[in-house]
Amino acid sequence: MNPTRLDRSGWTVLVLASIVLLSVGPFVHDAFAMGQAPSTCPNRYDGQITSATISAGGRTYNPLANPGVAFTLPTNEQYTVTFTIQTPAQSSQGNSGPGSTWYSSDTNGYYYGACVANAGPNENVTTTVTAGYSNSLPPAPFQQGVSFYTLESPNGVGFSYAVNWTSPAGNSQAATSAQTATSGGISLANTQSTSGTVTSSDQMTLANFDAGTGGNSLLVVGISANNQGATSVAFNGQELTRAVSSFNNNDAEFWYLKDPSGTGNVAVTFAGQTQAVVGAYLVSNVDQAAPVANTAAAYNSASSSPSISIKAVNANDMVLDLPSIYGGQTLGSPTCTQGWDTNIPSAITGASSSTVVSSAGQVTCGWTAGSGGDLWDDVAVEIRAMG
Question: Which of the residues 76, 114, 158, 304 could staple to 168 if both were Cys, CB 3.0 to 4.6 A apart?
Fold first, then answer.
């Protein structure tokens, strides 16, 4: 089934359907799903969600330990959900070869399925999803119920939580989407990330990235890896350009594509087998003639926490940073706004953050590593705003 997306006039019907889903199991989810159907995932491993963490407003929540946990956010802020699917010994095809796994969620107000590549037998596959207020939701104040599930989730629900959306401070009306928060200036319109082990295909896929309808936007892909660097990155078959990279201790790279459009997969090809974290930003209101104003790269030679400084050429530009550190350490407390932060234990920790600069000059983004830190690489890029 390939239904069209409901507009706001059909939203009440969708909510009623979602309530029914909680009691009748996963097959009903599929009747309303968008995105990728489970049948489209190659050599699919159907596992249960074994851990989940929500990061919102500077706090963390565990929806598995506290089903239905609620938190409050203004409509111009985003939050991240990091969860792990434990795969079985055999895929749905009855083998133990390389494959994928599948999940669905309704963070946007409707269920959207996604294949997660680079899965194998008896693995913990970790994925991070960044979510925000969606145009498909009613105006704030409003409580949105959200759930994530796989085909093996008991009673069709892996975990659930609620977001109490409020109007931004000083604004009597809700923003219609996170994209409008900067009133026409440069802004983040979408953020998404994934992680895992790259095996025989040497490729990792970030599935179903929504690049919108095009027009003065920039797709920026960040890559953190421990053993191999990327050789190419593509979105819907279009090749991206490498902006900056550093691989002295761990690989850290930014790639970009001008004016992308549509929903598609970000495919990252590596030089060989590695563990990696891949994330993507869609940046709005970007100068298309010269989108990258400046870059910087840094690394350390003794254990410490990652930090990088870049000289911003222009006021009102956006700076993105991307640290890569040994996976025995976690990262936290970013001095810029977190985009993603994913740890693959004993392999790689990859993270990214952003800030819009008020004036030209030196800009620093830093993170705090656990246990005194470790060896790292860090890269930064300045994205030039329109005008």
Answer: 76
Q: Which residue matches tokens 């010269």?
A: 290
Contact (Cβ atoms closer than 8 angstroms) between residue 216 and residue 285: yes
Q: What are phi and psi of 366, to 5 degrees?
A: -135, 165
Asked whether residue 338 is domain-assigned, the answer is no
Which runs of consecutive H residues, i.e. helices, occur in the chain? 11-24, 26-32
Rounded distance between C-alpha atoms, residue 125 and residue 105, angstroms = 16
What does the alpha-carbon distance between residue 98 and residue 121 come to, in Å, rounded to a whole number? 8
Q: Over the stretch 194-222, which tens digit does the pLDDT of each residue have?
A: 898 888 778 999 988 889 887 899 999 99
68: left (phi over 0), alpha (psi -120 to 50) or beta: left
**Inside any domain, residue 109:** yes
Compute the distance between CA of residue 328 and CA of residue 115 in angstroms, rounded to an integer.
Answer: 27
Return d(Cα 291, Cα 310) in angstroms, integer: 16
d(CA 246, CA 298): 7
Looking at the domain assignment, is residue 331 inside a domain?
Answer: no
d(CA 343, CA 165): 29
pLDDT in tens, 329-355: 999 999 999 999 999 999 999 999 999
* Both structure tokens of 271: 């030089």
β-strand 59-61 against 142-149: which pairing, if any?
unpaired
Other Cβ atoms closer than 10 A to 31: 11
Report the CATH number at residue 13: 2.60.40
- pTM of full prediction above 0.70: no
Task: Please give the structure tokens belonging to residue 272.
Answer: 């060989």
Query: Which residue range(s) make up the domain with 86?
Result: 1-178
Residue 360 and residue 376 in contact, taking contact as beta carbons nearer than 8 Å: no
In DSSP notation, 71-94 reads EEEETT-EEEEEEEEE--SS-TTS
Q: How many CA atoms lie within 13 A of 256 on its CB side?
A: 24
Separation CA 315–CA 28 (nearest Å): 50
Measured over the CA atoms of residue 220, residue 226, residue 231 and residue 233, the dihedral's sign is: negative
How many separate domains does the chain show?
1
Distances in Å between the alpha carbon of 373 and those of 258, 292, 321?
36, 30, 18
The answer to whether residue 124 sits within a structural domain is yes
